[in-house]
Design goal:
The chain has helices spanning 2-25, 44-57, 74-84, 93-102, 133-143, 156-172, 185-198, 220-231, 240-245, 255-270, 289-294, 301-306; strands spanning 33-39, 62-68, 88-92, 108-112, 125-131, 149-154, 176-181, 204-208, 235-237, 249-253, 277-280, 283-288, 309-311. The protein is an alpha/beta fold and 314 residues long. Helix 2 runs parallel beside helix 10 and helix 7 packs parallel to helix 8. It is elongated.
Length: 314
């Protein structure tokens, strides 16, 4: 009996030591909590952030919200984040990401709600607003099977990571990706003009990606939309606003589902996975039916019912 109790005691002690060691080696913030930093806004934009945060919370993450007002100082934000007591930060939107860049390196930062990977030389994880090129190209193939080449203008300082992924995905989908790396609006305007003038309407398409350093909604967009319409060149985008103005289609975020995915990334890092930026995979689709008709595309009624947004609106 004494030997049995000694064996049980040793087993209990070993289990206690293992549990203590596991607790000790976990990250300091591995309590399934996160601070979410986001702009203090109202109306529709507030609803976007609320949906993302709800998705994060539904991964059983205890969220401490830090809404940033326009005039908030760096010190004020740092104090509010520190008082929240979590070492994991989810930064949403440009203002949230900018604030996270100003914090010290003690935090694990995950970003969402911006189209480009931020600079600053700090390691980030998270989800870009840029849709996964593989999903985009699959939709293009479904809509316009005749397309063989895709033209895209981009700034490598902001979207080199996206284009690297896109090259592999395009090749896997049977497309040739023709890229133009430009650094400012003037270079971008010339590149779009050259593409529109020389595109083969039987096999070429144009892909617009969001980057305000090389893209103007007031000048470049109207020009390229007009040229694409006049020459019947399929033009697709990463922006619903562009579809409303005449682009064929765009994939855009399912905000709640994206929040759930952000939560999963936070939990995975807490368990030891490295941080990394990934493209958006939780997507909805917007389609311009008038443009589809102009391009003589055969879109069935069943397909139309599967679209999340259609333009022109009924």
């Amino acid at each position: 009996m004494r030997m049995l109790m000694s064996t049980v005691g040793r087993a209990c002690l070993a289990a206690w030591l293992c549990l203590s060691l596991a607790t000790w080696i976990q990250p300091a913030w591995a309590d399934d909590s996160a601070v979410v930093i986001y702009p203090e806004v109202s109306g529709a934009y507030r609803g976007v952030f609320d949906s993302i945060i709800q998705g994060i919370e539904d991964q059983r993450i205890r969220v401490r919200r830090v809404a940033i007002s326009e005039g908030a100082s760096r010190e004020e934000i740092a104090s509010r984040v520190a008082s929240a007591g979590s070492r994991a930060i989810v930064a949403l939107g440009r203002q949230g990401v900018s604030a996270a860049l100003e914090l010290n390196s003690d935090y694990a930062v995950f970003i969402g709600g911006i189209a480009m990977q931020p600079g600053g030389g700090k390691p980030f994880g998270g989800i870009s607003l840029a849709p996964d090129p593989a999903l985009v190209f699959a939709r293009l193939r479904n809509f316009v099977p005749s397309v063989k080449r895709i033209h895209v203008v981009y700034n490598s300082r902001n979207n080199d990571w996206l284009i690297r992924n896109a090259r592999e995905d395009a090749a896997a989908a049977g497309f040739e990706l023709l890229t133009r790396d430009v650094q400012d609006l003037r270079e971008a305007a010339r590149a779009f003009q050259d593409i529109a003038s020389n595109a083969d309407t039987r096999r070429d398409a144009i892909w617009l990606i969001n980057d305000e350093t090389i893209f103007s909604e007031d000048y470049v967009l109207p020009f390229i939309l007009k040229e694409a319409w006049n020459r019947s060149i399929p033009l697709f985008s990463n922006s619903v606003a562009h579809v409303k103005r005449g682009a064929l289609f765009a994939l855009y975020p399912d905000n709640y589902a994206m929040g759930r995915s952000l939560g999963q990334i936070v939990l995975a890092h807490s368990a030891g996975s490295p941080r990394a930026m990934v493209p958006l995979r939780d997507v909805r689709i917007a389609v311009n039916l008038q443009t589809a008709s102009h391009l003589a595309l055969n879109i069935s009624y069943a397909q139309q019912r599967s679209f999340d947004l259609t333009f022109p609106t009924p």
